Amino acid sequence: MAKLVINEWKKEGRIEPEIYGHFSEHLGRCIYEGIYVGENSEIPNVNGMRTDVVDALKELKVPVLRWPGGCFADEYHWRDGIGPKEKRKKMINTHWGGVVEDNSFGTHEFMELCRQIGCKTYINGNLGSGTVQEMSEWVEYLTFKGVSPMADMRTENGHEEPWVVDYFGVGNENWGCGGNMTPEFYANEYRRYQTYVRNYDEKHPIKKICCGANVDDYGWTEGVLKTAYHHCAPQFHGLMDYLSLHYYVHPEGWEIKGSATDFNDQVWYKTMNKALYMNTLVERHGAIMDQYDPDKKIGMCVDEWGSWYTCEPGTNPGFLYQQNTVRDALIAGITLNIFNKHCDRVKMAALAQMVNVLQAVLLTEGSKMIKTPTYHVMHMYRHHQGADLLQSSLSEVEEIGIGEWKVPKITESVSIDEKGAITLTMNNLSIEAAETVEVRFAEGGYKVTEAKIVTNKDMHAHNTFEAPEEVVEADFADYTVTESGLDVNMPANSVVEIRVEKA
Ligand code: AHR
Can you give the three-state secondary structure of 286-346, one letter per residue? Predict the structure, then answer.
């Protein structure tokens, strides 16, 4: 029996809601079809945004949304996506599937989407192939109130009031698709470009995100900070608020990737092992950041994470459309627990991607929409947003797995909200055996107010348009309240969420 000790008197830092953020790129059917269908569509919509999708995202409490890419961002020229739609440029989306991009979803549409969802805005600028002037004018167009060429243009395009841009990414993956730069070259470019990402609205200063590393490229983190950090010292504060990190789980490696739904037991454990690797990445990149920024003023922003499999048979390989099984529920559960536990450094993250691409929370087909297992996990975990992480530690956890792919059987994180409600999220990574977890609090006397589970006996189970409820968030009752805590019997391959309050 595993033991989980929770010290409800020891708060370890705030879990920023933005850790539960999302990413939407002009890629495959994420934006077009998945989110935006246009005002004239027969699919119910408000100003072109699918009502079913927006409603589902509101239930998820999406805190922040990143757009327009990804690799797409460093080829995106924002002027192509404003003004009358019939006049907007039609072009080829060179990165993703070679399809026609008609630019009908642009700046105004993105800001409208965030308004409807009720989330913060994270715009990723183009440093790779755009100019300083172009980036600077986009920020002016978005946020300047008063007389200026860009503010006038915005008004002519039907939006007199400036918007609030909460976060601005100065380039994306500039070590790769964003220009193949060296860390030193990028860092100098970052210093230059970000100078002109001006704060026109003192009440809502834009937080700037510097492009961080790919996976374990610690040299990138070191090189960028060495060149750019000292301009971000307190006297220059505001030049760099976040440093990003991208990490995808490819079960069979980058070349092969592997099927989303057809995998064996060994690949299950390999996937779990690779999901847990996020912990090493956060700690090692975090240790480099600590050398420059011991007070943790700069947040780590893991703005691309999730599973990346071989796309579904018969779909455009450039669309990155994949199914989502119980295995993805576990990847989400494990990763979000890691972010919670590192909330002193990880201040923002974005699951890739929101609809119809990679580890999506929603899938659409024509007018139909389904929620994936990942959606249900993120829904259960939403209670952690803005809560304080509590000190918790596991012991007597079995190591399981096949061959070299070893993992701990259980992972967890615990938080307390401002009303004193405690949320505990746990994962059982075993596909063979249930596990009883003996949960003990420093002080007893709690009652359970909510208990939910995402699981299915079959690790391959997933939701389809024909059978949309194979893996859902269900009520969970397999626990016993004890004097000082709970004994929770977690089925194999499950994600469990339990909320307790003082009895
Ligand atoms: O999310 C898909 C792609 O993965 C993004 O465009 C890019 O930033 C990353 O390589």
Answer: HHHHHHHCCCCCCEEEEEEEEECCCCCCCCCHHHCCCCCEHHHHHHHHHHHHHHHHCCCCE
Strand partners, 494: 428, 455
Interatomic CA distance for residues 53 and 356, integer angstroms: 11
Condensed to tens digits (0 to 9), the pLDDT of residues 406-439 reads: 999 999 999 999 999 999 999 999 999 999 999 9
List Cβ neighbours of 55 (8 Å cut-off, separation of 6 or more): none
- Measuring CA to CA, which residue among 431, 201, 429 is closest to residue 333? 429
CA gap 62, 166 in Å, rounded: 14
How do residues 50-62 score in pLDDT, each as one tens digit? 999 999 999 999 9
- Of the residues 33, 101, 134, 304, only one is catalytic, namely 304
Look at the block and give the residue holding tokens 């998820």.
60
Residue 118 near residue 385, CB atoms below 8 Å: no
Reference 373, options 315, 310, 456, 309; nearest CA is: 456
Atom 7 (ligand 1): residue with closest C-alpha? 70
Q: Which residue's structure tokens are 């304080």?
A: 388
Q: Measured between alpha carbons, how far is 189 from 167 in angstroms, rounded to an integer?
A: 18
pLDDT at 440: 97
Distances in Å between the alpha carbon of 498 and those of 179, 231, 384, 416, 427? 45, 44, 11, 12, 12
- List the one residue out of 249, 402, 412 whose CA is nearest residue 325: 249
Nearest CA to ligand 1 atom 3: 70
pLDDT tens-digit profile of 68-125? 999 999 999 999 999 999 999 999 998 999 999 999 999 999 999 999 999 999 999 9
Identify whether 312 is a catalytic site residue: no
CA separation for the pair 122, 293 (Å, rounded): 23
Amino acid identity for residue 156 in this structure: E
Q: How many CB atoms lie within 10 A of CB 458?
A: 13
**Which of 303, 304, 307, 354 to mutate to test ligand 1, by most ligand atoms within 8 A of the CB atom?**
304
Please list the residues that pair with 355 across neighbouring strands. 362
- Is the Cβ atom of 304 under 6 angstroms away from ligand 1? yes
Do residues 308 and 358 make contact, with C-beta atoms less than 8 angstroms apart?
yes
Tokens of 440: 């003990």
